[in-house]
Amino acid sequence: MRKSIAVRRARLYVWTGVLLAGLTAGYPPAMAQDGVTCGITYGPDGNMINLGLCRNMPEQGDRFGAVAISPSTHNTAASHGQGSQSEAERQALHSCGSKDCEIAYWVRNSCAALAVSYHVPGPYGAAMAPDREEAAAKALAQCNARGGKGCLVRVTPCAGDDVRWPSPLPLPPGDQPRSVEPGLVGTWEHAINPGYWVLQIGANGSFAFHSEAADGAAPTMGTFSASKGRWVMHATNLVWDDTGTYQYKTSGEFIMTGKLGAGNWQRISTNPHR
User: Fold this and answer.
1) I need a surface site. Which of 11, 45, 91, 102 has the fewest CB within 10 A?
2) CB 256 within 8 A of CB 16
């Protein structure tokens, strides 16, 4: 889909095509109802937690999304771009892959996020917001507040995401200041046949990925460093590490070589938070 940069704000890239990792769940699912309480769940102390209110949106052009999770296998799945709540939930449950999968959240014309504890079993956080960055931050904070250890954001579908490929993940905040050559900070795309891979590189050592191609590549995010012609990537939501060389040719082009060979990247924007 070739639209304006503003529309392509969430395109992301990772140098891989591996599948999403399983997730951890430890609490009853939160069922969303538009216009009223959007979700109820329970904390470690047994007290009820109100996940907040859904947004009321115009009926015309409504789109729905959902996230599902299996308490026994920790599989997770997401749907987006659907015309009804029931279809969004059906697709999420179908993709989850376990008999005990449950809907953790559904949204209309907004975004959902799911963050899980690194340890199994452990709690998870589910949240909604107008954009995926805010939803992810809320879900992560909720997971940590419930006693989760090493909580990680796993899925952040927005209801209006293009159904042709998986929903993107937000760029992580990063924790490695000055670890990336300044000229590489921003959003880049690499043309493949057919479609595009898009890489967001943050100044504080983070990356995020989304493939807009029919290759089944999973979105991911993690840490990234690049200086003096060498780069290192570590995904936090997938089991994937890579390293290699790069050539920064101009302000609008660089070549990165890794496990999957060499890729020529064109700049979309100097802003990595698309």
Assistant:
1) 45
2) no
d(CA 123, CA 258): 35
Q: Is the peptide bond before 157 cis (omega within 30 degrees of 0)?
A: no
Cβ atoms 68, 30 nearer than 8 A: no
Cα dist. 204→151, 153, 181, 209, 222 in Å? 20, 18, 10, 16, 11
**What is the residue whose two structure tokens read 């700049």?**
267
What pTM, to 2 d.p., does this model score? 0.73
Q: What is the pLDDT of residues 56-80, one digit of tens each?
A: 433 448 999 999 888 777 788 899 9
Name the DSSP class of 60. Answer: T
pLDDT above 60 for 3: no
Query: Which position has the token pair 């209006």?
Result: 160
H or E element, residue 41: strand 40-42
Instruction: Name the nearest CA neighbour of 20 among 58, 65, 76.
Output: 76
Tokens for 146, please give them: 């419930």
